[in-house]
Amino acid sequence: IVYLFSLEFLNRGIDSWFKVEIKQGLADALELSKSAMDVRMREYARTTELFAGELAATPVSDWDLTTDTQRIESGAIEIVVYGSLGRVLAASSSGATSTNVPRYATPEMTRSMAGGNTYWSLEPLSEGDYLINTAAPIAAAPGSSEGRFVVAVYPVPPQLARLSEAVQRSYS
Question: What is the DSSP string of 18-45?
């Protein structure tokens, strides 16, 4: 009886020790994947913010060329420059989107731009892919009150998306 009791006690004790370690490891991996995604979003938001500063110093007539160059250099899927009332001032797309019509700025983006803040968000797509949407206000030209801003859409690297999905599934 003592032998069976001891054996059962040890089995349950060992199982509970490993379950806690595995659960903590998965929680840490989930936090790490979220942090990696957040770092990537902040990097892209900073890139968009720097580009908005560059646009402020560039004549409006050169914005189409500047937007094309920036999209290629940054790896963005699409960059759109908006003026007042949602008017598209310049746009560049890699053709990876389903249409050549630029995406509309979301209400959250426009609220953030009205407050002069940089915006970023993660948009899930089908099959575990993600897009990172960023937006940054463009400083108004002297004597102008026009609220201009730039929106850039970046792809999340497929490997990072797959790893994040795998960690999330394992944790669940």
Answer: HHHHHHHHHHHHHHHHHHHHHHHHHHHH
Cα–Cα distance measured from residue 115 to residue 1, given in angstroms and rounded to the nearest whole number: 73
Helices in 75-135 by DSSP H: which ranges? 107-114
Rounded distance between C-alpha atoms, residue 42 and residue 94, angstroms: 22
Helix 2-56 / helix 158-171 crossing angle, nearest 10 deg: 150
Full-model pTM: 0.74
Instruction: Give all strands (DSSP E) within the chain, no chain letters.
Output: 78-82, 88-93, 119-124, 130-138, 148-155
Are 93 and 66 in contact, with CB atoms under 8 Å apart? no
DSSP for residue 152: E
pLDDT profile of the chain (172 residues), mean per 10: 84 66 77 86 93 88 87 90 83 66 73 84 81 88 70 86 77 72
